[in-house]
Write a structure and sequence with these properties.
The chain is an alpha/beta fold. The chain has 6 helices and 6 strands. α2 (22-35) runs antiparallel to α3.
């Protein structure tokens, strides 16, 4: 099992998430991590991620974004993912709205794993075939399986 598969669980994958803007997307992803007990304070994490978004967009292009932050509200690095029912503007440099979002949160002192995960996600999401398959996933199990297949 690869690094992404260890940090992402089916319970934190939201398929057909309805959201009007990136704030709602990020809030829903933070809440999914909080429900799993991976976040001690969802409000702190939400604000940490939004503060990071203020620095620069976390949209990668190709309809994908990876909002992320280091936060005191998590004790180990974790991931949540969403396939949006309607694309949302994340301020991407290519001007395209986002349909796939992976939220990553890590503790303040754990930048090594954070960078490895960001790099791995960026590489995977540059694969047009994988992006198409993720956008077409019917449920969290299928979405998770697609990530697991590529996470080696």
């Amino acid at each position: 099992m690869g690094l992404l598969s260890k940090k992402l669980s089916q319970q934190s994958i939201l398929v057909s998430l309805e959201a009007r803007d990136k704030e709602q997307v990020i809030k829903a992803l933070v809440e999914s991590l909080a429900r799993e007990g991976k976040v001690s304070d969802g409000e702190i994490l939400y604000h940490d991620v939004m503060d990071r978004e203020e620095l620069a967009s976390t949209a990668l292009g190709f309809g994908c974004a990876v909002p992320h932050a280091h936060s005191t509200s998590v004790s180990s690095t974790c991931l949540a993912a969403a396939k949006l029912s309607q694309p949302v503007d994340f301020g991407s440099s290519d001007g395209k709205p986002v349909s796939l979002v992976f939220l990553m949160a890590g503790p303040k002192n754990d930048s090594g794993i954070h960078l490895k995960l960001l790099s791995k996600l960026a590489r995977l999401l540059h694969d047009a075939s994988l992006r198409d398959r993720l956008v077409s996933a019917n449920d969290a199990q299928e979405f998770f399986n697609l990530i697991t297949e590529k996470d080696n």
